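User: Show me a protein chain along with its predicted structure.
Assistant: Here is one chain, sequence first, then structure tokens.
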Amino acid sequence: MTVWIDTHCHLDAPEFDADRDAVRGAATRQGVGHCVIPAVERSNWDTVRLLAHQYGDSYALGIHPLYTGRADDGDVALLAEMLRQHVADPRLVAIGEIGLDYFVPGLDPVRQERFYRAQLQLARRFDLPVILHVRRSADKLLKGLRDLPVQGGIAHAFNGSLQQAKAFVDMGFKLGFGGAATYDRALQLRRLAAELPADALVLETDAPDIPPHWLYVTAAERSAGHPQGRNAPAELPRIAEQVAQLRGEPLDQLAQTTTRNAVSALPRLAGLVL
């Protein structure tokens, strides 16, 4: 069976509380051999660590930009202490999910940037890659990386321009593609998935978010009482099929390439998946 790495899966999310074991088991049966579970705030740092050990997966620790509004100013120091305690854990593969979000209204951009840059400094201090949240913020993220270079990582759910994509790749990053690439109307994203060099891509679900088109429920349907479809790591192989079709390459070749790329982006995966 073809084996896949889901490089971004929020397996700790409350949407999975009722059936988390079944969700991870279904992913395994579909060939998803490994999931990277990123944290989003202080309250779930221990949770993602314990889940990674429970399921044989890996984790990242960080403060997500959407959570900076409710984060304490001292949380960066607490993150540094958490990293100090667990930096020798082979399942700790990155600082993340960190970054900037200029799409969601009501977030303080100055506060977001302060947390982002502070966490880049931690990535440098502990010599770890980063998993980046990129939403209408690619240029500002790239500026931070130029000011505070890190060893690379993954630009998660990438949806920028070709020029921005190349800039991230030149800085040692891989670009995460998932459910959004399955939508016919996502023309630019699908073009990127098709045309980027093979060594630039990794695959992800962002489960339970960013459902692929076969799970998506429209706003009209949601207003009529139909819940949004829940994404899950078991969807990754079907998402990969569409990416392989876009690229005109065999599915097994995409699996091998994206696994190699994931290990390149997050080097500690080598001891876990190879």
